[in-house]
From TrEMBL:
Record's keyword terms, sorted: Membrane, Transmembrane, Transmembrane helix
Transmembrane annotation, as ranges: 6-26, 85-110
Keyword Membrane among UniProt keywords: yes
Lineage of source species: Archaea, Thermoproteota, Thermoprotei, Sulfolobales, Sulfolobaceae
Protein's recorded name: Peptidase M48 domain-containing protein
């Protein structure tokens, strides 16, 4: 195994991940502190938030809009309570990639599964502790291709899945 290349890949992943979190942290301003959690806003027009849960930027929720949405806050709080599997997975793949580039193919599917699991766990956290369910006016696409695209190209489970009652069963 090429140790130098593995270390270089790991360093690149850390630099990119931490730089993105640093950008969000320093471009936003803190408006509230709830215990150890810092709540910040970025003043964009998007109604969403990002939980910063990395080595250098922890316990921070950055809202991309000008206002705090309690439902989004509870979901993002769930992300702060869970280990950051994606970051650890990216570091592992970066370290192992010099062994064989074939690792990249299953890594995409495993990474996607981890994203869905983390998102569902955050949804379940918000539901169990605060009785907050995901709300959306998006309906299940009729086309199989549209449903497949909803599963493949989104980091969350599809909206039409997250709003049904069965999604919140602990099975």
């Amino acid at each position: 195994m090429n140790l130098e290349l593995s270390l270089f890949n790991v360093a690149i992943v850390i630099a990119i991940y931490e730089s993105f979190h640093a950008y969000l942290f320093y471009k936003s301003r803190e408006i509230e502190k709830k215990g150890r959690i810092s709540i910040r806003i970025l003043n964009n027009e998007e109604e969403n938030a990002i939980a910063l849960n990395s080595f250098f930027f922890r316990n921070t929720i950055v809202f991309l809009s000008n206002e705090i949405n309690e439902k989004i806050l509870r979901h993002e709080e769930g992300h702060l309570k869970q280990p950051n599997y994606i970051y650890a997975f990216l570091l592992l793949v970066a370290a192992l990639l010099p062994l064989s580039y074939i690792i990249a193919v299953p890594a995409v599917f495993i990474g996607k599964f981890l994203l869905w699991k983390m998102e569902r766990d955050a949804d379940l956290y918000a539901y169990r502790l605060y009785n907050v369910k995901y709300e959306s006016d998006v309906f299940r696409p009729k086309s199989r291709i549209e449903r497949l695209k909803a599963w493949i190209f989104d980091t969350h489970p599809p909206d039409y899945m997250r709003k049904i009652e069965e999604y919140y069963d602990k099975k």
